[in-house]
Design goal:
alpha+beta; mutator protein; 8-oxo-7,8-dihydroguanosine triphosphate pyrophosphatase activity; 37% strand; 8-oxo-dGTP diphosphatase; 3 helices; globular; binds 8-OXO-2'-deoxyguanosine-5'-triphosphate; Nucleoside Triphosphate Pyrophosphohydrolase
Length: 137
Amino acid sequence: MRYVVAGALLRERAGGGRELLLAQRSYPPEVAGLWELPGGKCGPGETRAAALERELDEELDVRVVAGAPLTEQVRLREDLLLVAHWAELVAGTPRAVEHQDLIWVDAAELAALAARGALVPADTAWLPELTVALDVR
Ligand SMILES: Nc1nc2c([nH]c(=O)n2[C@H]2C[C@H](O)[C@@H](COP(=O)(O)OP(=O)(O)OP(=O)(O)O)O2)c(=O)[nH]1
């Protein structure tokens, strides 16, 4: 089984609550323009934590430490499993190196994106967990 590992980065929003970082895919055409958790495929022999830390360095130009996994996993193909981990930003400011754009969203903004089909479809599996984390005050 191969893994795609994606990162859930949170930050505090002024005035209360939290925000989640989303990245807008630029390829392939069927998901271009949709929003996802940034990440990518684990290399051979690479741990999920190491893959996430490498991918976010490459894609966002930031240093992160991978934390606990989210509960939901999504089978993308017979041999490819999508997982997400919480990630802590330790250095740098995210910038869209490989994505079209980046946004920080609160729970309401995440729900609005989901409602209009603007998330990469598989990522909707994480909505309940992400929403709980964003609603913490
Ligand atoms: N990174 C990421 N990929 C996701 C998410 N949701 C989802 O269905 N995918 C799919 C899209 C792709 O088919 C696959 C990951 O591809 P990727 O393009 O990010 O991986 P990669 O950086 O290793 O690049 P490549 O070798 O495929 O070019 O997982 C998500 O939240 N983040």
